[in-house]
Amino acid sequence: MFDGSVYLDNAAATRMDERVLDAMKPYFFETYAVATSQFGYSPGIDAREALEGARATIAEALGASAEEFILTSGSTESSNSAIKGVALALGERKGRHIITSRIEDFPVLYSARSLEKRGFTATYLDTDEQGRVDLDVLRDAITPETILVSIQAANQEIGTLQDVSAIGAVCREKGVLFHTDATHSFPRVPLDVRAAPVDLITVTAGLIHGP
After folding, report:
1. Angstrom distances, CA of residue 148 to CA of 30, 53, 94, 110, 158
2. 74: part of which helix (H) or strand (E)?
3. End of a domain among 19, 48, 68?
4. For a surface tag, which of 34, 81, 112, 169 has the fewest beta carbons within 10 Å of its beta carbon?
5. Which residues lie below 8 Å from residue 133, measured CB to CB, with a gap of 6+?
6. Into how many domains does the chain fold?
């Protein structure tokens, strides 16, 4: 940064913590092999064990099991994979309608618009003056064709926190999958998938002083 400047955009990207860099250095310069299975060579096995350990640590912070946590290049790929993955899996079997809000971050909005170009329909819910989704409006928007609801846990511009548990409960009631983009709340606001009815969650290291 320039001398005398103040950075105020941590909702977009954060400076890496030196402790994170120290923890990662061995995997850049020593154990840098491709993570392989038990039948691979020793450096690859060491790398895989470190990778699985990191996966388990992050998953536990969400109340998930390590096998449920998928590492991607970042939040954009994660949300894109979650939304389009559900669409491709259920589009032909259940329906081709998704629901999101007008104030979602770009990865979610662009994924929804991309699906619209492929024959899906999307409903973009309005929010109240505080940026919150009305549960009754959400419930009314769900149709027999709806396969997914994607509502962010926290808004990156105004800081609004949605009631993720209540939204998830509506989705469970209606038999619809629920994705939440928690990149701007994890791990500041607790979210435990063992308690909250959430099917897919997006989190990122880039907003919590990681790589």
Report:
1. 43, 31, 11, 15, 25
2. none
3. 68
4. 34
5. 101, 125, 127, 151, 162, 167
6. 2
